[in-house]
Design goal:
Elements (H helix, E strand, L loop, with lengths): L1 E7 L11 H8 L4 H20 L7 E3 L5 E3 L5 E7 L2 E7 L4 E6 L8 H4 L7 H18 L11 E4 L4 E5 L2 E10 L2 E7 L7 E5 L2
Parallel strand pairs: 1-11
Antiparallel strand pairs: 1-5, 2-3, 4-5, 6-10, 7-8, 8-9, 9-10
Length: 196
């Protein structure tokens, strides 16, 4: 099962469920926008963990910078775009991406595909699928994105790069695409809720 919460990014966020060391780390960010995005993401992480009966947690980071939860069997991933933030939590490794559909995505088309595809919706879909896969792997954008292959199946996507495969679902909320991926095809067990 993958539990997903999303919300609009706000400045007045309750930080009581965010670990102290994360608050200290985020306080050093020079940009208020970046601080708000991070605080809102960790707020959602705390809320999803509460669904599992977990009220406190600590984060550590891989050498590539991907955060993970210390001493718990749960994995998470957070993404933000413009006014929304989204958080996915699962008992298996998970990647998630949210992107607002914008015309300017056509500027990065040469970096993500050689396919005949010029409309912003299709490019945003493809970008979120590839980005969720990269976040699932936890490696950052370190490869040629064109080499990540996306194949549409009946009700999910199969994403491949070298010897890595994951399965993804895509959702559209307002003018945003959300893609979430995991190693198993049991991606059907998604619970997505808007946090108010």
């Amino acid at each position: 099962m993958i539990n997903i919460l999303y919300k609009k990014i706000t400045s007045d966020i309750d930080v009581s469920n965010i670990p102290e060391n994360e608050l200290n780390r985020i306080a050093k960010y020079g940009s208020k926008k970046r601080r708000d995005e991070s605080l809102n993401g960790l707020f959602l992480l705390g809320k999803v963990l509460e669904m599992y009966g977990i009220n406190t947690y600590e984060l550590s980071y891989t050498e590539k910078g991907k955060p993970y939860i210390d001493n718990l069997k749960y994995h998470f991933n957070i993404s933000h775009s413009n006014e929304y933030v989204v958080c996915a939590v699962s008992d298996k490794e998970v990647g998630i991406d949210i992107e607002m559909v914008k015309d300017k995505i056509t500027n990065i088309k040469p970096k993500i595909t050689d396919e005949e595809m010029d409309d912003p919706d299709s490019l945003t879909e493809l970008w979120t699928l590839k980005e969720s896969f990269i976040k699932y792997l936890g490696i950052g954008i370190t490869m040629d994105l064109k080499k990540i292959k996306v194949k549409r199946e009946k009700d999910f996507f199969e994403i491949n790069y070298l010897n890595n495969t994951c399965y993804a679902k895509m959702l559209k909320i307002d003018n945003y695409y959300i893609s979430v991926c995991q190693a198993s095809k049991i991606i059907d067990h998604l619970v997505i809720k808007k946090y108010n």
